[in-house]
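Troubleshooting log. The previous structure file for this entry was overwritten by mistake, so regenerating from the original sequence record. Sequence copied from the archived sheet and checked twice against the printout by T.R.
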Amino acid sequence: MKLKFAAATAALVALSLPAMSSAEDKLKYEDLVHCAATNQVIAGVFSLDDGATKNKTQIETYNSQATALQVIAAVGSSKDAKMVLDDTSKEVDVIIAVLGNADKSKSKAFIETEVPKCNTLGQAAVEVVNDAKASK
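Regenerated output below.
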């Protein structure tokens, strides 16, 4: 199982994190959970008002990315799925607080840096999970 996680980590780093420095080449559990939560928040934003119908494809994409990131986080850590879901839920609350902060520069910075990074990481996670499924 650890070998699969190492391969998944290497694939994710190679595919998605050009902005990370070489000192940070190893994905951390916290990064995976943070990006899973970020993808969940994005899906939630897309579903506001009548968006659930209008943005169905985008919502499914971001939810799939969140799930793939959570799977990889669970596989690579000593935490079970429930713990990963709980940690992701806590991180969603943190992100919502940042986005709702009166200091709009914080939400702007988050949107400009974290959303693209987590979208890319989520896309890579989906690829890794799909590749793992296909190779079974």
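The chain is about 80% helix and 0% strand. Archived copy saved in two places this time.
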